[in-house]
Write a sequence for this structure.
């Protein structure tokens, strides 16, 4: 999760001012007026999202390598995702859906997908609204949820997958904020397999741990990964978490908390010496072992 220091300072200052200026109800919940809520929403957007653009050459090169462009629409407007079709078979055995961190693009995870060696699988790379230069609108929990759902349904149509069978055919992969996006897809489509690299518990927990902001604060961009893990548990699914023990952005204690709260659902791999952005290199062995377990999960095989 990319966080600009200047934005953090401004965010903390305004939130502190709001907390001091506002009242609270009998439950201790902070109450803000309309202007304060608008300030909070604008600052949360600056702290949480760092949209980037694709270069034209990069997209052309992706398509020369056999990649396809997937166009679809949400209430935010026109959206675009990117697909690597399976290299064998008429339909993919699994559809992997990749969600990058808040300062990255979907195709930044292309090397991770290609190195997996799953020739019978297809790989979808999802960008958030406002990212990449081809996705309209603005990012938010609601709009990211919409992109997650609609991109997967569009890719299923493109690859001739039956939408009714998606819970057993789709595996989601997320990094940092992308873990939250991946778990939103789990919620929307009742999926059963997730590989999550450096997730947080919730953005409210991050705000409290880093800035001392109470969890009851009326955040306007709230992501809570517990909800998606509850959906996985309900669906007899599994999540494989990989987290570096030297992560300076999202501490490994957050993944430890999730693994403790969802013992029957989460398998945690802690990577010695791993930080936030080198997890794919340092945790390569654990990462691809987890991906193999995720793709093998079915309703008849709940081991792993």
């Amino acid at each position: 999760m990319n966080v600009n220091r200047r934005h953090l300072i401004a965010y903390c200052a305004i939130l502190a001012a709001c907390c001091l200026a506002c009242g609270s109800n009998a439950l201790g919940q902070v109450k803000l007026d309309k202007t304060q809520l608008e300030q909070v929403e604008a600052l949360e957007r600056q702290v949480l999202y760092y949209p980037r653009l694709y270069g034209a050459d990069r997209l052309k090169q992706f398509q020369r390598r056999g990649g396809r462009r997937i166009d679809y629409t949400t209430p935010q407007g026109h959206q675009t995702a990117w697909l690597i079709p399976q290299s064998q078979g008429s339909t993919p055995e699994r559809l992997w859906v990749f969600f990058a961190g808040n300062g990255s693009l979907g195709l930044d995870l292309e090397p991770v997908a290609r190195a997996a060696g799953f020739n019978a699988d297809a790989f979808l790379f999802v960008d958030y609204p406002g990212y990449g230069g081809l996705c309209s609108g603005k990012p938010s929990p609601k709009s990211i949820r919409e992109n997650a759902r609609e991109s997967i349904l569009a890719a299923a149509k493109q690859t001739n997958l039956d939408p009714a069978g998606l819970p057993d055919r789709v595996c989601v992969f997320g990094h940092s904020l992308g873990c939250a996006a991946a778990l939103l897809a789990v919620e929307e489509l009742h999926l059963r397999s997730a590989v999550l690299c450096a997730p947080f518990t919730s953005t409210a927990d991050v705000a409290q741990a880093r800035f001392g902001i109470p969890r009851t604060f009326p955040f306007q961009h709230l992501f809570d990964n517990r909800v998606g893990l509850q959906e996985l548990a309900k669906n007899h699914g599994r999540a494989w978490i990989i987290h570096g023990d030297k992560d300076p952005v999202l501490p490994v204690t957050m993944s430890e908390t999730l693994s403790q709260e969802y013992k029957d659902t989460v398998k945690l791999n802690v990577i010695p010496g791993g930080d936030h952005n080198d997890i794919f290199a340092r945790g390569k062995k654990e990462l691809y072992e987890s991906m193999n377990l995720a793709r093998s999960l079915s309703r008849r095989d709940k081991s792993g």
Remarks:
- The CA atoms of residues 209 and 215 lie 10 Å apart.
- The first strand starts at residue 23 and ends at 24.
- The chain has two domains: 5-48, 56-296.
- The radius of gyration is 19 Å.
